[in-house]
């Protein structure tokens, strides 16, 4: 068994520790590890714990356009778009596979054929977003193109493919801003549901994910400690294994519900 050097920091999350356990289990069982690096390096702690994973308005617009282009290219009906899995089969002509790998997802051309691989054991709601994220990489890299977008950008495209605008708006009329019900309806994560509410309704929303804070929607003065936000201005929401917050407008007629 090879030795994996693991630098545990204050910010090591259970997901990361769990991933390491998967890697070690794979080593013990002779499973194939597709990492190029023998070492699992985790993010350092400190100030970046509150680093906001900001995307500019330009990037978000480009993420919208990318999702639109991919649906069009696949000949999808925008009113009733296919699932991300179906979309990926249409676009890549291969079925996604699940394997013991280090990353959550990968997309590689094998003999000119692109195929998505997701890590065995990742939560089912997460799979749709990973498919979308990997498809977004493919969209940039197909035809030998260069992928200069950030991982956060590809996450945003993944969210748009997992929770496309038209059906999501329709669902918002039915479920309101119920993060958990929307996530279930779209077979996706609660984080994606929350961020899509913020993006499509303009309501300020924040997800405090393992890599940092993701904020969307209208500007809001998010404090370091979310618990200091008065109940009249916002409420904490449990999203997946993290905390998030949805803001209320100061006025009675705003987002308060
Ligand atoms: Zn990626």
Features:
257 residues, alpha+beta, Arc Repressor Mutant, subunit A, 3 domains, four-stranded antiparallel sheet, three-stranded mixed sheet, 8 helices, 7 strands, disordered N terminus, binds zinc ion
Largest sheet: 4 strands, antiparallel
- The CATH topology of the largest domain is Arc Repressor Mutant, subunit A
- Report the CATH architecture of the largest domain: Orthogonal Bundle
Distance between the termini: 55 Å
Low-confidence stretches: 1-14, 24-50
Query: Strand order across the biggest sheet?
Result: 5-4-7-6
Fraction of residues in helix: 25-40%
CATH class of the largest domain: Mainly Alpha
Number of domains: 3
The string of secondary-structure elements, in order, is HHHEEEHHHHHEEEE
Question: Which molecules other than protein and nucleic acid are bound?
Answer: zinc ion
Assembly type of the shown chains?
single chain
The whole-number mean of residue pLDDT values reads 82
The backbone outline, from C-alpha atoms, is globular
- The count of DSSP E runs of length 2 or more, i.e. the number of strands, is 7
Residue fraction in strands: 5-15%
Q: Provide the structure class.
A: alpha+beta
Count, helices: 8
Radius of gyration (Å): 19 Å
